[in-house]
Amino acid sequence: MNNRERPIGFFDSGVGGISVLKESLKVLPNEDFVYFGDSLNAPYGIKNVNEVRKLTFKAVDFLLEKGVKVVVIACNTATSAAIDALRRRYKDIPIIGIEPALKPAVEVSRGKSVIIMATPMTLTEKKFDNLMKLYNKEVDIIPLPCAGLVELIENGIIDGDEINEYLKGKLKEFSHLDVAAIVLGCTHYPFIKKELIKIVGEKTIIIDGSIGTVNQLKRQLTSNNLLNEKTKKGIVTIYSSSTNDNTIDLSYKLLKL
Ligand code: DGL
């Protein structure tokens, strides 16, 4: 097999990275994908940085054993904790990360506030601090740590009362503000976007980082001469560390949503 025919590796702490994989399938339909979700160890966002780094290395080793040609860290938390260390260790393979899409949110904000929902770790790491320094002079940016939300989504709860109450509780203190946009800074959150719209209304723009990440993936494949040239539809293979049989079913269900 030549390098171009090898699959693209995707990693997330659980089923969240499927939201990025979905976008990738639209842009790169002829590529094969191997997805690994570490649902056994999710959530990452409330662990310490060293632990997340160790788990991320282990996941990337697993993907490399599957022969992937590039790795996408489809997890904001793992990206903020480990991307620099990953690039130092795996020098021969392109590694693409994801970060909260603050730039497009600030661009549409027209002086109003922007809320950024993410895991506690993403919002306290240096990478996010650097992003804030870039943009918070222009706009009022409100970081909103959402501990507990990943657990609900990992259990397949993406709509209904429980999600609705969780989101209402998180957002109620900002109801007096004119919020232009909400950034989904965790790859699990696009799956609860419909519930979020019910609460904040259609006018609030909801942005996630998947499109930027997929564009970056395509650029990397192109510049490294790794685009698959076959014309038939690619294959997606999903692995999970979870001991719960439902996790793989949930992953395929989310992929089809
Ligand atoms: N999908 C991960 C992210 O983008 C969730 C992290 C977690 O497991 O807490 O941040």
- In DSSP terms, counting alpha (H) and pi (I) runs of 4 or more, how many helices? 11
* Side-by-side strand order of the widest sheet: 4-3-1-2-9
Radius of gyration: 18 Å
* Basic shape: globular
Bound molecules: D-glutamic acid
**Overall domain count:** 2
Question: Could you tell me how far the N terminus lies from the C terminus, measured between alpha carbons in angstroms?
Answer: 32 Å
Q: Return the structural class.
A: alpha/beta
The second-level CATH architecture of the largest domain is: 3-Layer(aba) Sandwich
The name CATH uses for the topology of the largest domain is Rossmann fold
In what range is the share of β-strand residues?
15-25%
The first-level CATH class of the largest domain is given as Alpha Beta
